[in-house]
Amino acid sequence: MAGTEQSIDPITFEVVRNKLQAITEEQAITLKSVSGSPVVTEATDFNNGLYLVDGSIVTMGPQVLFHTGTMSSVIRSINENFSENPGISEGDMFILNDPYRGAIHQPDVSIVAPVFHNGRHVAWAGSCAHQLDVGGMSFGSWAIGATEIQQEAMLLPGIKLVEGGVLRQDLWQMIMGMTRLPHMLGLDLKAMIAANNVAARRLVELMDRYGGDTVDAIMRGEIANSERQIRDLLRSLPDGVFRARDYIEHDGHQNVLYQVCVTATKKGDCLTLDLTGTSPQAPGFINCTASGMRGAAMTGLLPILAPQIRWNEGIMNAVDFVAPEGILCNASWPAPVSSGTISTAWIVQNVVVAALSRMVTCSPELSCEGQAVTKGHMMVMTLAGLDRDGAPFGTFLLDSTAGGGGAFNDHDGLDGSGDYCVPRPAIANVEANEANGPFLYLYRSFVRDTGGPGRQRGGAGTSLAIVPYGTPGLHAMMLGHGVEVPNSVGQFGGLPGACGRNFMLKDAGDPEFVAGLAGDLEEILDLNVEELGAKPGRMWLSSRDVLGYAFQGGGGYGDALKRDPEAVRADVLNGHVSVAAARSQYGVALSNDGIDHAATEVLRGEIRSRRLGGTVPARAAGSGDMRISSSRFSCDCGCDLGPTNGNWKEHARSYRVEATSYGEHIRTHVDLELYEHVCTECGSLLEAEVVRKGDAPLVTLMLDAEWSGDMPTQPYERSSANAAA
Amino acid sequence: MYLGVDIGGTFTDLILLGDDGDLITTKALSTPGELEVGVFNAVRDAAARRGMSGEELLARVVSFGHGTTQATNAVIERDGARTGLLASRGFGDTLAIQRLMGFTAGVPVDRLGWYSKRRYPEPIVPRHLVREVRERVDHAGKILVSLEEGEVRSAVRELLAEGVQTFAVAFLWAFRNPEHERVAARIIREEAPGAYISLSSEVAPVLGEYERTATTALNSYLAPKVVSYLDAIEQMLRSRGFKGAFSILNSAGGVMPVSEASRRPVTLVTSGPTGGVMGSVHLARKLGYRNIITTDMGGTSFDVAIVVDEKPLMSTNHEAGGFHIATPMIEVRAIGAGGGSIARVVGGQLKVGPDSAGARPGPACYGRGGTLPTVTDADVVLGIIDPETFLGGKMKLDRVAAVAAIEEHVAHPLGFSVEEAAAGIRRIVDAQMADTLREVTIGRGHDPRDFVIFAYGGAGPVHCAGYGAELGVPKMVVPVTSMAHSAYGALAADLQFSTERAVLMRGGGGARQLYDGFDIEEIGRTYGELIDECLNAMRRAGVADTDVTLVRTADLRYRRQTNDLIIPMADELVSDASIADLVARFERTYEQTYGQGSGFRDAGIELTNVRVEAFGKARRPEIKPILPTNAPRSTRRSIFEPTLGRRIDCDVYNWHDLPMDFVASGPIVIEHPETSVFVAAGQIGRLDANANITIERQESGNGRN
C-alpha cells in the first residue's frame, strides 16, 4: 500500500483527494434535495460516503455520526453473504436495515452501490437515512413492548433492490407494503439511489481522468494518512486507563436500571475500548448490536481525538473493541433493538466522551478538546391522527435535540447545542411545525438552571409544550430515558446538567385559554402537571390535553465555586441561572447593584467547610482543577492525591449527597446515588459521580507508572460568550 | 454623466460613465471614520482626468449609485444599536436558540466536527433586552390571546430604562395577522417618539419565526449606523453641487433611494459582493451571454454567483454575522481561497488554504512581515505577476522573499524545485475553486459547461485561466470594468423594490390536480396588493408607473420538502390556466434541479410565498472604449508556465495598448495597473468590442467538446 502511495505526486494527490470529498458533498446535496423527510432535511439524520471494495471507509459526510462505520459493516455483510448468490454486478444496489448485519437500528436504512470502472469492481458508494416508519408494531417503528426483533419492523438483510440499473418492482412494492408512510419511504429510497448514482458517476469520471489505479492508490493513501495521524496523536498521550460509567432506566417493560461501562486503555499508538462491566442485554427494545456500539463509540471519539484528521477507516484501524456477547451494547439475536440508537448507543457515546475527555486532559496540546457530556439523553415524541383537513397525519417531533452542550476546560457549554452525534444540527421553526400539523405550541424556550454548574457552566437545555389544535385529538407516543438519570455528567468537579422530563396536563381548557396558559417550564410546572416518567409510551391526547417535555442540560467543567462571579452575574442577567442557584451552587451573592464580593467569599467558604464536614479548609483553593506532576495527582491548592498509577479517590474525601441539593432538575432513580469527591485540604470539588447503589466509585483516571509528563493547569479563561452586554 | 462608487475596506473604487459612453475608473484609499472623504477624493481624481473640479463634475452627474459594505461591517464588528425586542410570550428565546444553527453558520464543512471550536455568535439583542408579551395568533391569523396594551407599555418602558435605542417587534404568525405588531408599534411611538421601529410583518413577512425575528432585529440593530452613514454621504454630495439621484445597491441586485434603504437597512448586508454580480449581469447582457458564473477572487475569499437566463439566482436563506436572514438576495457563495491563501506541507501532503495571510502580514512578497508562502507568492515565483509592475508599480513586491518562503515551506519538504512547488500551489487552488464552481452549478441542476465565467477581483484575472479550464467552460471573460466592477454594478443596476407575502396553500395529493386546494382568488388579490405596494415605492422614488417592470414570482415545493423553488408567474392575470402553468413549470424546474424522477407529485405541493419585484429601468449609455489602432507592443518575459511545467519566454502586453482586433495564443500575460490577466498555453486571449478580454480554448470555436 505504501509503495503505490509514494509513486503519486503530492499535487495530484491533493487535487484528487479534494475531489473525493467533493463527490461526498454532492452525494449529500442530492440526498437532501430529493428527500422529503424532515428527519433528513432538518435533522440531517443521514450519512453517505465512498468505500473501498472491502468496505473500508474512504470518505464520509459530517451528518449524524452514529452512521460512522455503519455502511462499512453493511458492505462487509453483503460481501460476505451475497457475493456468490445473487452476486455483485455493475448497476446493482443493495438495501439493508438489519441491525445484526450492520445497521444501527431498523429505521436506519442503508442503500449501497458497487462502483465499476472498465468492468472492474473498484469501490462502493453508500447512503443511509433514518426513516419515519419501517413498519412493525408501532408507528415510527419504535417497538415499545417488543420482546424479540421479529415484532419490531421490516428486516432487510441486504437485498438487491436495483439490479443492473433497474429498480425491481417486486421488491419495491413489497417494501412499500410494509411501511405506514409509503410516500415518505419511497421518496427517501429514491433519494438514496439518486445520491449513489451521482457518486458512482463522479468516481468513474475521476478514474477515467486520472486512472483507476491512481485514484485507488489515493483512496488507500488517504486511509493510511489518517491512520498515521491518529496513531501519532495517541502516541503523544500518556499510557493509562480511563473509565466512565453511565446508566439507562426503563427497558420498555419495567423501570429497571441498566449500566454501560467503558474502560479505555491507551498503550503506545493503540486504543482499546472495553465494554466489559456493562449490564446483560435487556428483554426490551433498548439494546443495541455490535454495529450500534461501534458507531456510537466512534461518534464519541471523533470530535475529541480526530477533529483535525480526515474521518475514514484509518481512524477505525487504531481502535480495538472488547465486548462480551449478550450485553446491553452487544445484544444477541433475537433481542429487540429498535430504540437502540436513542437508548444504549446513546449511553455508549456518553461514556466514551467522558472517558476520552479524561484522557486528553492529560496532554497540554489536547486538553482543550476535553469536555463534559452533552445532553446525555434522547426523547422521542411521535404524533399521529387526522390533520386539520381530515387527511391522515403523522410526524416525529425533532425539537428534542435542543438540549445543552457539555462545558469545556476553557469555555462554557453551548446553550442549546443539539445532540453530540450531529455536527450540524437544526430544529424546525415553531411556525413550520404548526403549519404542517394540527397542534399548537404553548412555549419553546430555555429552562433556567439546567446547565450543569461548574467553573465552566454546562449549556442550558430547552423545553416545550403542545396541545392538539384543529383536530379532535392525536395519538402520541413518547419514549426516552434520562428522566431519573443525570446522564450529562460533569468533568473534574463540574456538576451534571439537568435531567429530562415528560409531563402532561389533562383537560387544560379551550384553545384560547390553553394558548396563554404558560410561557415556560417553570410556569407550567406550577399548574400541577402529571409527570410521565421515561417511557410513557402510547397516549391519546384530546384537544384539551397539554403534552410537554424538557431536555437535559450539558455537564459543567471544574468546581462551580471557582467560576468567575462576573460570569455568574451575566448568567443571571440572561436567565440561565437563578439568583438562588447562584447562591447555592456557585456561592455567589448578588445584590441589586451586582456582586456582593465580601458575601460571596463568605458563602464560598461556608460551602467548602460543609464539604469537609464542618471543618475549616486548611488551604486556600486554587483557581484550577486537578493536576498531574512528577507522577503524582494533586489538587490545584497543592494537596497531594497520590501516585498517578493509583486511585486518587482514596486520597479524597467522599460522601453521598441528595439529588435535591443540586436543584429541582436533578432526579435519581431508586437504584442510584450521587457522590462527591473533594480535596481534604481546600474543599474543592474534584468529581461529582453518579453511582448505582451498593457499587464502589469508579477509578476514572490512572496512568501507567512510567508516565512522567505534566497535566496542564487550567487557568480560568472567560469566554466571550459569557460577556454581559 | 453617471457615477458608481464601491467603498471597500482598503480602497474606494469609482467608475464614471460619460454621456458619450467613455469610461473612467479611479481608486482612492478608503478613509475609515469619515468615508465620504474618500468618496470625494475618488470623485476629484475622476474629475481631474476630465479636466474638471470635483464640484463641476458632481453638478453634471445625474445618477450616483453606491454599493456599501457598511451594513456588513456593522454586523461583523457588532457595533450596531442597543436594540430591544418584543416577542410573543413563550417564544422570547427564539433569537438565542437560533434553531441551533448559530454555531455552525459560516463554518466550512471540514471544520464542523471540531466541537471545541463551536461558539454561538455574539447576540444582536442580548436576552435581557428581550421582553415577552402575552398574545397569540394561530397559523390562520386568528387571534387566540389578545394583546394587552398595558403590558406592552410597561415592557417598552423597561427597555427604555435599559437604554434601548431602537426597537424590533416579532410576534408569532404576525405575517398572517399584523394587528398586534401594529398596536405595539403605536405604543412604542407614544413612549419613545422618533425611535426606530422594525416590525416583522413589514421587514420579512414570511413563515419561520427565527429568520423573521433575526431579520427584524438586525434591521433595527443596523438602522442608526446605516442611516446616518447614508445621510452623511448624501449631504457631502449635495453640499458639493450634486443634484441628481442618489441610490444604494441592495443585496437583491437593485438600487433603491436612500429613503427606502433607510427603511430596510438589513437588505444591504451583501450589497458589496452583489455589485460585482450586477456589473457582470449588465455586461453579459450586452455581450449576449445568457448564462454566466461570476467569480470574484480577492485576497482572502473567492465569491461565486450564478446567473441563468440573465437573472442572478436568488435565495431567501442567508447568513450574516452568524444569524440567518430571510429577505430575498442574490446567492453568493464564498470559500476561503484567495491570493493570500497559505500553502503548507502536512504529513507529506501539500495543502492550500483555507487560512489566509490576508492583507497583513499578507503574502511573503508584500514585505510586511509575512513569511508563509501564499498563492500570490506562487504567482510571483512563476513570473505571472511582475513584482515591478504590481498595482501599477505602486507597490514593489519582493520576489526573493516569495522564493524563500516557497523553498522553505513547500519545495524543500516535498523535494521539488521552487517553480514546481509554485506550479503545484496554483494547480491545487485552481482545482479547489473549480470544485466549488462545480458544486454551485451542479447543486442547482446546471451543467457548468453551459456557462461563461466572469473573472474579477485582484486575483480573478490571474487565475481564471486555471479554474476555468479545470471546470471545462468554453470561455472566460475579464471585464473592462474589472478593477471597479462592484462600482460598475452600482452604476448600472435598475431601481428595484420587492415585496412578498406568505400564503401557505396546499394542493394535490392523491388523484387530484396538483393545484386543487389553492385559493386562486386569494392569490390574485394578494398579487394585486403587492403590486400596489411596489408601484407606490417606485412613485416615491420618482419612477412613473409606465417605466416600471413587474416580475411576479411564487415559492413552491413538494409537500414536506424544505427547499422552496422560486418560480416566475408567466401571465399577468391570475387564473386557473396561469396557476396550472406555474405548477407545471415548478415541476419541470424541480426535475431539472434535482434530477429526473425526483419529483414526488403524490405528496402534493405547497405554495408558500408570493412575491412581486418591481424594476425601474436604469437608462445608461453604452460603454464605448477608445481603442488604439496601432499594433500592440509587447515585451518578453521568462515565466514558468504552470500547465506546461517548464520555463518559457512569453509575450507581455499592456491592456491599455491593445487594439480592438487583438488576438494572441497563450501563454501570454496582459498587464493592467491593477491586475494581470494570464492566458495559459493552449488558450487564446482576445479583446472584444467593449475592450473586455476573453480567454478560450485553442481548439474551441464550436461549443463544447
Oligomer: heterodimer
Average pLDDT rating of chain B: 89
Going by helix content, strand content and strand pairing, the class of chain B is alpha+beta
Q: End-to-end distance of chain B, in Å?
A: 44 Å
Low-confidence stretches of chain A: 1-5, 713-725
Number of strands of chain A: 29
Largest interface, with counts of residues having CB < 8 Å to the other chain, equals: A-B, 97 and 82 residues
Strand count of chain B: 35
Main beta-sheet annotation of chain B: 9 strands, mixed
Let me know the largest β-sheet of chain A.
Answer: 7 strands, antiparallel
Taken from the alpha-carbon principal axes, the silhouette of chain A is: globular
Head-to-tail CA distance between termini of chain A: 56 Å
Structural class of chain A: alpha+beta
What is shown here, in short?
The complex is a heterodimer of chains A (725) and B (705). Chain A is α+β, with helices and mostly antiparallel strands and 725 residues long. The longest helix of chain A is centred in the N-terminal third of the chain and has 29 residues, at 182-210.
